TrEMBL record:
Protein name: TnsA endonuclease
Organism: Gallionella capsiferriformans (strain ES-2)
A Pfam family it matches: Tn7_Tnp_TnsA_C
Keywords: Endonuclease, Hydrolase, Nuclease
Keyword Nuclease: yes
Span of domain TnsA endonuclease C-terminal: 170-253
Length: 282
């Protein structure tokens, strides 16, 4: 099997541009770099975005964590990852700073720098565009890393876009664990069902029974669904995760999920008015 070439040269930059990378928005956006294009030191992943309806390319665990927060946020309307910066502008900034522009070590080609996330953010005062870089805190001791971050910061300052740096210290660990747990249950369409409308029926029964359950634990309630409502083993928890994922049930995302907790820690709502921690990036 041929070894994948991760290097960048002018021909590859021309090809990426012709492919429409770094262009479009929403479901039409194509990131400049995909998980196939880089030899990531972290775990890269491809995740379906609820906001955009497309597959997102994330190059580290920290990027994945940041994405989950953004995708959950009610205020975020679009997420563009691996967003390319104009080389003419970053080259000029590097010259003004008196530092070397980032290059590909093999071809010695000036690379197209990217920002990890470009985010459309809706606030009560109107729409905002936010640029966010994601870096491990320990890498900020490296002078070269700081030079690259400064090029990026100045680039977005010229574009009049709010730029910020996210490290692991900004990422709420327990909330992210819960969002990982919920994300795959955002849709149940991939599940095999015995008849059309099966999951809608299960969700309706779950919500109705939950309101009448009284003083039970979550585990007791799910066992009741299996005993009296025809739920198969595991379906009750699956429906619970789905209803939380689509924000029809609110739970404390900053606490570890506990099956032995009282059922009343879950709050059934009729709208998606859920507090979201991704506002910390505004």
């Amino acid at each position: 099997m041929a070894k994948r070439r991760y290097g960048i040269d002018e021909d590859k930059i021309i090809r990426f541009t012709k492919e429409g990378r770094g262009q479009g928005c929403g479901p039409e956006y194509r990131p400049w770099l995909t998980v196939q294009d880089v030899s990531s030191r972290g775990r890269s992943s491809r995740i379906h975005g609820v906001k955009t309806g497309r597959e997102h390319h994330l190059l580290s665990d920290m990027e994945t964590a940041t994405f989950l927060l953004l995708d959950w946020s009610n205020a975020v309307t679009d997420i563009r990852e691996q967003f390319p910066l104009e080389r003419d502008v970053t080259r000029r900034i590097a010259t003004e700073m008196g530092v070397r522009h980032p290059i590909d070590s093999q071809s010695q080609t000036d690379v197209v720098m990217t920002t990890d996330f470009l985010v459309n953010f809706q606030t009560s005062n109107g729409a905002l565009l936010l640029a966010r870089s994601v870096k491990p805190y320990g890498e900020l001791d490296n002078d070269r890393t700081l030079e690259k971050q400064e090029i990026e910061r100045r680039y977005w300052e010229i574009k009049k876009v709010d730029w910020g740096l996210i490290t692991e210290k900004d990422l709420p660990a327990q909330r992210i664990k819960n969002l990982h747990w919920l994300h795959e249950m955002n849709s149940l369409e991939h599940m095999v069902v015995p008849y059309p409308g099966y999951w809608e029926d299960r969700c309706t029964r779950f919500a109705a029974c939950c309101k009448q359950a009284g003083d039970m634990t979550i585990k007791q309630f799910i066992h009741q669904l299996e005993g009296t409502q025809g739920f198969s083993v595991g379906e009750g928890l699956m429906v619970l995760r789905h209803l939380v994922a689509i924000k029809h049930i609110v739970m404390n995302l900053d606490a570890k999920f506990d099956m032995n907790a009282p059922l009343n820690v879950l709050d059934i709502v009729t709208s998606a008015g859920v507090a979201d921690s991704a506002r910390r990036f505004a």
